[in-house]
Amino acid sequence: MANLTCISSMATKRLLEEAAADFHTQSGISVTLQSVGGVLAAKRVSDGEPFDVVILAQDALDALANAGKVEPSTMTPIALSQVAAAMAETAPAVAFERADDLRALMSSAARIGYSTGPSGVALISLIKEWGMHDALAPKLVQAPPGVPVAKLIADGTVQLGLQQRSELLGMPGIRILGDMPPGAEISTVFSGAVCAAAPACKEAASFLAYLASGRTAALKEKIGMAPAPAR
């Protein structure tokens, strides 16, 4: 049976690790995974590394399709991910139900951590929309590619961190406050596609179909994601 190679952003690492094991059990097809920062993953596919499957935020995948690096007809929505906020597990309890609560937390935090991925881009846009960018810019700390925001929280580099819930769940030293409150929601659809130079196109397509199927719904819920809406 074929051995697929798959590259993804860190946000889907847990999903893919567990799903790949079940897919192998069901199909006999093994999947070798590489999960890195989303910007780096897109660059490696763009540079022509011979992966079978790439899984990234939808906008990044669209850019690869436009550049001819993936097969557009194979693009498959896989998971919907919400951004959540977290603080150190030793931090005092705070209100986190309204957009005003988030604004107050951002104003009071000495440092605010965010990611290089789509959630980080959306967060900066939200801060600008609120007219808070000039005040908050000196506090913003962008995690290096591949470094979880949770690590910055746990080691005290930042007091408040915002990232995909799936990347915060289970990380030591932090407490998740909740998903972004109403009026400040940030969601990302992660999709997959067969790479243009994939050695195993048929098997790659079957892996994408499996990831989008109901068989992975419970796993997505467990890691803080949800099935993606159809395009």
UniProtKB/TrEMBL annotation:
One of its GO terms (biological process) is molybdate ion transport. GO terms for molecular function: molybdate ion binding. Transmembrane segments: none annotated. This is Molybdenum ABC transporter substrate-binding protein. It comes from Bordetella genomosp. 8.
